[in-house]
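Because discrete structure vocabularies remain unfamiliar, it helps to consider an illustrative case, giving the amino acid sequence and backbone structure tokens:
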Amino acid sequence: MVSELKALFEYYQKEKGIDRSKMVEALQSALLAASKKSIGPARELRIEIDPDKGTIKAFAKLLVSENVENPFEQLAVKHARKLKPDAQPGDEVDVEVTPKDFGRIAAQTAKQTWMQRLREAEKANLYEEFKDRTGDVVSGTIRRFDKSDVIVDLGKFEGVMTGRERVPTEDYTVGDRMRFYVKAVEKSTSRGPEIILSRSHPNFVRRLFEFEVSEISDRTVEIVSIAREAGYRTKVAVFSADEKVDPVGACVGLRGARVKNIVRELNNEKVDIIHWNKDVAEFTKEALKPIKILSIGVDEANKRVHLTVSEEDLSKAIGRKGQNARLTSRLIGYDLVIEKDEHAKKVFEGHMGGAAHQLVEALGITEEEAAKLAAEGITELTILGEAGVEDIAPAFDGDTERAQAILDKYAAWKSPASVA
């Protein structure tokens, strides 16, 4: 028991970082509870432990009495004077009451209680060590899974990455060593303090940039805002007060080395680095490049940006399942309203209408026929003059006779004298 106890003290102090005095206190409480079963309700029972020697002794403070009525609280004068020669009735005497064998039940109770107290002390140490590390990036090894949670070995302690903090496109395997963002250290939980880890948090990307880009760590370049859909795409807006420093170039690095390291850590998640601009309209244009914005308006009161793009750019501006628009909105901090430009369409329709009207007036064809010709690009009489039946027939679903009739009318219009 002595050698085993000493070994336990040394192990928990060295490997778990638990203070020896706390272990002694825990063991004293555990053994006190166990001793009451084997010793009985002795008066002021206490346990003394020497952690260096590994010895355990039990003492009771008994009252010296002429007539002993309760042996758990009183001690006869003759016995008391063996311990304290000048003992008198009414004095208190410390008497060692250590059983030769605490008994199997007492020992088991003590061990269980001690282990529980040690686990509590270990969790308290965890909180003290990690409470100021929220926002840090730590390395750990995946140890096991608890339903959708990933349990990560951080060395002395374990962290948990809940299902919502996982990246949907990443696969996790026991034994994988990865980096994690310390999202929080929670003290008041049913299982004691917990280190909540994340790989999906936007600030994980921020910290990776701080590690890779020296200009960010020394504050020459500032990350103004980040918008992320973990596993798919991240937009990062950067700025530098130093006009000589290109913030985007600094983040990209020589031949893209810096951003490649970050993308590799994020398992090939797409990362867009954007020039921040205090002008919301200009910032929005930067965030949506290379899409060409035809018009833009900023509603400061309602925090909304209205913009129009061409029909060809509309789907790109919105992005797959609205991702590009969502990320841009989060990045600039304004709601984004993207609309297709109708002005160009109206101009085109007006041009087509004018062309069709010219054909109707000159050739005497119906408006429907003129519209079909215009839709095929035959918007002027001169173009019609250079066209053949094979060029016109597609406008009438391949009807060559109808196409020839149109050409005949054109010929009559061009040379009215010869026709007469």
